[in-house]
Backbone:
């Protein structure tokens, strides 16, 4: 009789524990995998096919790590809004669809095609999931490309789980455990920005030198060159070091991450030239004063046009003076060549002490 009671108690205990164990393994993060934009309309079908395969592959590989929105749910939301199921969405439309499905993380990007292979450049936008990253995948066919994208997204999802663990340990004050979790994330996905930014936050608590924090922030930029948190940290740490010039270039890159943020753009532009003049005195051999411009006879010339080009922050622009001056005569330099200094905002070979060089000249058109 006692044996029967023991078996009954164990059975009831196991039945009670089973739902709790299942509840623990259910993922809470969501990811919306959408078709890529195309450079050629002929590649539209390939873009849809590749991302469909990537979505199904991710569901198979990471069903216990992330809730990947199935295509049926995507089609229902699109059809309810009057769109076709396989439409290629723009960035703003993708963001709206994600909000309607209550999803913070979603994919956007472009698909290119040459005679040998397909190349996809994908950006994962995120809320607090830690998925945010930019990566490139290639494949000779849409099927192979979709498989490669699915595998890479699986790595990102698994690494992001450790990055979130790092943030949690960091919030509890367990710095060593946080760094260990970040190392696990980096081992799975070396360029995951969330992992490197968590390391950066631990360094801030530990009051590490500014150079260490700048290095951690730059490692985050490898995975996402438009990461605002990383650029802001770089700018603030250069200011702490007293390197105003590099700080201004970092603030300029920060402004590029969101040109709609008028406060950041104007603040960077207004602070740039006075800082350079304070740092670069006329006696400095690197100092190059701007050319003297004569007043224009016409009332005003067209506004400055600034066109960002490369994802890592390089900028080439055409510049005209907009304050009632003539264009600079041929052979005369006004101290600005329209380029971002270096691949990540360092100095170029002309030196940093060029009045007019930097954020003011490059962002003046936004005011």
Residues:
């Amino acid at each position: 009789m006692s044996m029967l009671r023991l078996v009954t108690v164990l059975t009831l205990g196991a039945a009670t524990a089973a739902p709790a164990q299942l509840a623990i393994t259910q993922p809470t993060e969501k990811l919306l995998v959408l078709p890529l934009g195309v450079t050629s309309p002929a590649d539209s079908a390939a873009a849809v096919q590749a991302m469909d395969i990537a979505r199904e592959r991710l569901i198979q590989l990471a069903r216990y790590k992330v809730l990947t929105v199935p295509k049926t749910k995507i089609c229902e939301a699109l059809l309810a809004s009057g769109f076709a199921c396989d439409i290629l969405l723009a960035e703003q439309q993708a963001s709206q669809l994600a909000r309607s499905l209550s999803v913070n993380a979603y994919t956007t990007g472009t698909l290119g095609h040459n005679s040998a292979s397909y190349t996809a450049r994908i950006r994962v936008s995120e809320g607090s999931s830690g998925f945010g990253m930019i990566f490139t995948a290639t494949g000779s066919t849409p099927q192979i490309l979709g498989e490669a994208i699915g595998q890479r997204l699986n790595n990102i999802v698994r690494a992001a789980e450790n990055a979130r663990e790092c943030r949690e340990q960091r919030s509890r004050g367990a710095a060593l455990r946080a760094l260990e979790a970040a190392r696990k994330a980096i081992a799975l996905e070396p360029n995951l920005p969330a992992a490197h930014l968590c390391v950066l936050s631990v360094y801030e608590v530990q009051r590490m030198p500014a150079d260490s924090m700048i290095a951690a922030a730059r490692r985050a930029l490898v995975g996402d060159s438009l990461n605002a948190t990383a650029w802001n940290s770089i700018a603030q740490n250069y200011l702490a070091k007293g390197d105003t010039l590099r700080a201004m270039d970092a603030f300029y890159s920060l402004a590029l991450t969101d040109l709609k943020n008028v406060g950041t753009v104007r603040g960077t532009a207004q602070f740039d030239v006075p800082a350079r003049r304070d740092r670069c005195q006329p006696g400095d051999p690197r100092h190059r004063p701007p050319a003297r411009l004569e007043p224009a006879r016409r009332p005003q010339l067209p506004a400055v046009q600034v066109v960002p080009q490369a994802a890592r922050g390089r900028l080439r622009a055409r510049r005209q003076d907009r304050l009632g001056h003539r264009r600079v005569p041929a052979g005369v330099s006004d101290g600005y060549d329209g380029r971002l200094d270096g691949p990540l905002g360092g100095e170029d070979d002309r030196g940093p002490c060029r009045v007019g060089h930097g954020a003011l000249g490059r962002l003046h058109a936004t005011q």
In short: The two ends are 86 Å apart (CA to CA). The beta strands are 30-32, 37-38, 67-68, 105-113, 118-125, 133-139. Residues 6-10, 14-23, 286-367 have pLDDT under 50 and may be disordered. The first strand starts at residue 30 and ends at 32.
